[in-house]
Structure formats: C-alpha cells, structure tokens
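Table S2 (text version). Query chain:
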Amino acid sequence: MSAFNPSEAVTFDLAFGHVHLDGAPSRVMVPADALLQLCQAAGAGESADLAHAIGEALGRRVAVRMAVGNDERLAAVRSAGLDAVVEQLAGELALIGMGALSAERWGKALVLVIDQSPFGEAGDDFLAEVLQAAVHALVETAQSRLVPLAREGVRVRFLVVSGQAVEAVRSRLARGDHWGSVIAALHPGGPTS
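Corresponding structure-token output:
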C-alpha cells in the first residue's frame, strides 16, 4: 500500500459552489467551534449519530482505497498492517481538519492519538465517536470502543478496548488512576484493584 496521497482529494467547484472530497457528494466546510456548539445543543445521542456518520465515511474511504484491485476490503485492510491503516486514516482526518492522528502500542493495547484537535477538550468525546465509527467501518465489527484516556495540552489519547473492558477503564479513570496504570491493568498479571 502506498503512502496517503492527498492530491486532488479535495476539489472546489466554484461555478456551483460545491466542495467534493475524493469524488464523494458535496461537503460543507464549517467552523469547528460552530460544529461543536451544534453537537452540544443537539444532545449526546444526536452528536454521536453525527460523529458516526463522519467516522463511517472516513473508514469506508480508507477501506475502498486499500482494496484497489482486491474485491475483499476487509482482507485488504487486515493484510495492510496497522501502520498503513493509521497512515491512511490520518490522511483522511487531516483532510477534514480534525487533527493529526498517530497510533501507539502499549504492550497489547492500542492507543490512537490526536494532536491539534480543532475542538479542544470539549470535543474529545465527539472525536472518540468519530474514530470508533471509522475503526468499525474499516474492520467491519462493532466490538471495539474508544475511550478518551488522557489529554495533555493539544494531544489527546484514546484507548481502543473491547466492549467488555469499557466500564472497567472508565471506572479507573474516574477514580483518578493514571492512564498508564489503566493500560497496565488490561494486561495479564497487571494490577487488578
């Protein structure tokens, strides 16, 4: 799989006043703070629905791009490897202005990192939903969840966990456990209290 190539990914049709992303139907460019205010006013359920729509579109675009010449998108994504998938997804997120994505491995734990989110801390839950929907679209499963793990300045980390571990992670974070110890507790032989 080649590196993410943004050339001609975004086109502006000034005659009709349209913006297109990767040949998809028209897109709208809006200020990040206005989008966040809309989500907050709409409520958690509606905000999650919007985030899922955005994330699913991102994940589908990556899966289709990775499956060029291969009818099986899921197989293409899985065979590409984590680094290639993250690079492609990072490019998609950057194109829509949601920050710079990278991934960290902590033992068997996967942490997705967003630097420079335009939403700030108030948008961390929204970003978690976007990333979660993108991951689900890429691997065609709804088992994984993304939990905001820690924010350090302009960097926010999201832990990718199975549905069963979500509450344990949230509980530990709510009681003030450091995110490193939360990750350690997920590993066999890690702290359990």
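Notes on Table S2: The longest strand covers residues 144-152. The longest helix spans residues 44-66.
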